[in-house]
Fold this sequence. Notes:
The protein is α/β, with parallel strands linked by helices. The chain has two domains: 5-111 and 274-348, 3-Layer(bba) Sandwich (FAD/NAD(P)-binding domain), CATH 3.50.50.60; 117-271, FAD/NAD(P)-binding domain (3-Layer(bba) Sandwich), CATH 3.50.50. 28% of the residues lie in helices and 26% in strands. The protein has helices at residues 12-23, 40-43, 56-69, 134-142, 181-195, 214-224, 277-284, 323-342, 344-348; strands spanning 5-8, 28-31, 73-76, 81-87, 90-95, 100-103, 105-108, 112-114, 131-133, 158-165, 200-205, 229-240, 245-251, 256-262, 264-269, 271-273, 311-313. A seven-stranded mixed sheet has the order 9-15-10-11-12-13-14. Strands 3-2-1-7-17 form a five-stranded parallel sheet, covered by helices on one side. Strands 4-5-6 form a three-stranded antiparallel sheet. Strand 13 (245-251) and strand 14 form a beta hairpin. The longest helix is centred in the C-terminal third of the chain and has 20 residues, at 323-342. The chain is elongated, with a radius of gyration of 22 Å. It binds flavin-adenine dinucleotide and iron/sulfur cluster (SF4). Flavin-adenine dinucleotide is lined by residues 8-14, 31-34, 39-41, 46, 49-50, 80, 109-112, 114, 134-135, 138, 180, 184, 269, 271, 274, 276, 280, 315-317, 321-324, 326.
Amino acid sequence: MTKxxxxxxxxxxxxxxxxxxxxxxxxxxxxxxxDTLGGAPIxxxxxxxxxxxxxxxxxxxxxxxxxxxxxxxxxxEGTRITEFSGQPGNFSAKLSSGDQIEVxxxxxxxxxxxxxxxxKPEWGFGTYEDVVTTTQVEQMISSGKGVRCPxxxxxxxxxxxxxxxxxxxxxxxxxxxxxxxCTVSSNIAMEIREELPDCHVYxxxxxxxxxxxxxxxxxxxxxxxxxxxYIKSRIAEVTSDGERLIVKGEDTLVKRPITIPFDMVVHxxxxxxxxDNKNLAEVxxxxxxxxxxxxxxxxxxxxxxxxxxxxxxxxxxxxPETIDDSxxxxxxxxxxALAQVHTPDAAxxx
Length: 350
Ligand SMILES: Cc1cc2nc3c(=O)[nH]c(=O)nc-3n(C[C@H](O)[C@H](O)[C@H](O)COP(=O)(O)OP(=O)(O)OC[C@H]3O[C@@H](n4cnc5c(N)ncnc54)[C@H](O)[C@@H]3O)c2cc1C
Ligand code: SF4
């Protein structure tokens, strides 16, 4: 009988991998450290996703249901891998629950960790209650409570969204662009304007990276239809005058200092490497790339290979990725892992 394939992490990538395997009749074991499945969109309570506009709980909830209900997917929540040994086609893994499982190959879909804004203290997070993150605003919207200032529950009449918080910032060791936060922020800005039509929403940016087709649907639409204002700027600090938050910086188009008061400031936080990556690298015997994400072979001749034959990787575990791309990568990695189980020699020969 074919050995099952181990999939670690039940976010969009892991759920897509198990679905792809089940679709071709291949059993898998899905190991998730949290007690809830769905990855960041569910664990962090995202609201409407870009670009589908679907609520995260519906779109990703369907993916969860599909895997949970499949007789070919053995789901283990609240579990980690503590040991992993063997060869392609014939691996043995020990689970934190004490179980030992035999698997043919493995796909790591262990995702990312949200940037913690306390690492950017000059921008006010942790000092002022009304400085929040994009995930907090997503939660305000998805909970149905609406966008409110945490300090006193009032509806904000002026909101600033600061882009690239924890991304593209060499001073704090994060050079990468997190890819999706420009688009997510434009979308959040439109959602705020829709809920609170009298609220002025400003987006402070270095460059706008609403890549591909997102330029029309998010960048231009947010300005033309929703009157969101964009300021190309360098932000110095976020302070308070006792009543309102004050964003100080430089307008880099006109090269003048700007100081503008707001009720709420939103940090568009980036995607850090998963805090578990060092441990995962040790347990699975794989390499990390220079920033600490899981190293992946090039995609011309490979489908999600890591430095260890028989162990594959997909999604935001490899660096900032969108949900769509995480799903595509996971589907490809699942097929590579399947080839390893059925024809290990041919798969090893490339
Ligand atoms: C604020 C914000 C909003 C976003 N909104 C969108 C959007 O609207 N549209 C979009 O396309 N993208 C969006 N993204 C990006 C999106 O979150 C990622 O593309 C997506 O979550 C990647 O899926 P994944 O499965 O690779 O990783 P994750 O979603 O991070 O899932 C990884 C899973 O692995 C589990 N795990 C981690 N380590 C271990 C371990 N050691 N053992 C077992 N399990 C483990 C985790 O608990 C988690 O369940 C947003 C990102 C941010 C920061
Ligand atoms: S997507 Fe936009 S906000 Fe996010 S890191 Fe890149 S440039 Fe900055």
